[in-house]
Amino acid sequence: MNKSPSCKTYAWIVWSAATLFYSYEFFMRIAPSLMISDLMSSFAINATTVASVAVAYYYTYALMQIPVGILLDNYNNRRLLVSASLAIVLGCALFAISQHIGLAIFARLLMGFGSAFAFVACIKLIHNWFPGKQLAFVIGLTNMVGILGAAFSEVPAVHLIEKFGWRQSMFIIAGIGCLIAIILKFFIHNEPSAIGYEPLNKSSNNKVSSSIWKGLKYVLHSRQTWLTAICGSLMVAPMAAFADLWSIPYLMHVFHMEKVTAAHLASFIFIGIAIGGPVNGALSGLFGRRKPFLIMGSLSTFLIITTIIYSPHLSHAAIGILLFAFGFFTGNMLLVYAVITEISPSWATGSAIGFTSMVVSVVGMISQPLVGFILDYCGNTIVQGATVTFPVSNYHYALAILPLSLLAAFFVALFIQETYCQINRTSGVES
């Protein structure tokens, strides 16, 4: 392997360009939340319809994960990412000019289509440009930058919308996407050999597949890929259900907090996962082990979320610490992406990453309405004016799926193959 500083430096340049696109994509997920009242007024729609516009993004995002992985395994990553970024730009422009809700939904579908390439491509490029022991750390760092980038862009975006209106702001955001497309064009390369360096993974140029479906067939027949994807999805489900949706109402009604206080404490989860991703990844690389960290992460989060749900007399400080710890240890989930790239041959890594990402996305999407369904099913709903709340017992029943999911993840992790941070250089099919 070429160990010259210039090659190592260029690896970080490639990572920076890809992660910039990932941060842009991450922001596109949450953009509608910054303009809800504006959208309701412009389209004369209710909250349910606004939600349907926002969630349209996730349909194409989830459905495209496997196709994206197959494409990244078989075609030029730079061209794919430039095309994906321009798809988001087009989506932004169409959203800005839309006068009918149907066009707005189509625009969100297009944004989700382009965004589907971002995280899978980041991991594929990290696999090609970084040595095995750095994989988990760099993947965790990517997630941290994505989360923080989106978080820190919210306030400027709000000011932008207040000054120029949501339509003009979407054109400006589209312009930023064009600049990102230019950066991707000049700085993204599939692997070191594309600019004259020796590839890190000797098998990366060995296209053993004569068919673009070879990688997907490998993935679907790999027991370890299924186990790893299921473990990751079971660890993410509580995060998606609790942190992304139900944490604030739970804290408000069970611990009698004001909404601002509940939102502040809930944000500790995201701070925890932003820090936990790279820290746990670095420790995993340092010790040369993945499996113990997945086991520790699933077991720790099981104990923490059980304490949060079933301990009614926690102080605000204790809740904040527990929520941060919940996010921190959930960060171990990102190790499944390191494992998946290490157990798969280079010609199948994109397919494996895409498959894992799809499973994680789908299970996460199911977990949110499942908690809501159980809350409703338990009955005894409390209606106070326009506000609907639930008894504490309803939350205890509904949120029970969170520790159960993490306990299941713990048992699945026991059967995951230890990779010792080594890249699979074989071309055979894993049993």
Short account of what is shown:
This protein is an all-alpha fold and 431 residues long. It is built from 17 helices and two strands.
Task: Draw up the topology in text.
Blueprint: H1 5-30, H2 36-43, H3 47-63, H4 65-74, H5 77-97, H6 101-129, H7 135-164, H8 166-187, H9 214-220, H10 223-254, H11 259-287, H12 291-310, H13 316-330, H14 335-343, H15 349-377, E1 382-384, E2 387-389, H16 392-398, H17 401-413
Antiparallel strand pairs: 1-2
Model description:
By secondary structure, the chain is mainly alpha-helical. It folds into 2 domains: 188 residues, MFS general substrate transporter like domains (Growth Hormone, Chain: A), CATH 1.20.1250; 197 residues, MFS general substrate transporter like domains (Growth Hormone, Chain: A). The protein has a two-stranded antiparallel ribbon. Strand 1 and strand 2 form a beta hairpin. The C terminus is likely disordered.
The number of domains:
2
Please provide the ordered H/E string of secondary-structure elements: HHHHHHHHHHHHHHHEEHH
How would you name the CATH homologous superfamily of the largest domain? MFS general substrate transporter like domains
Number of H- or I-type helical stretches: 17
C-alpha end-to-end distance: 29 Å
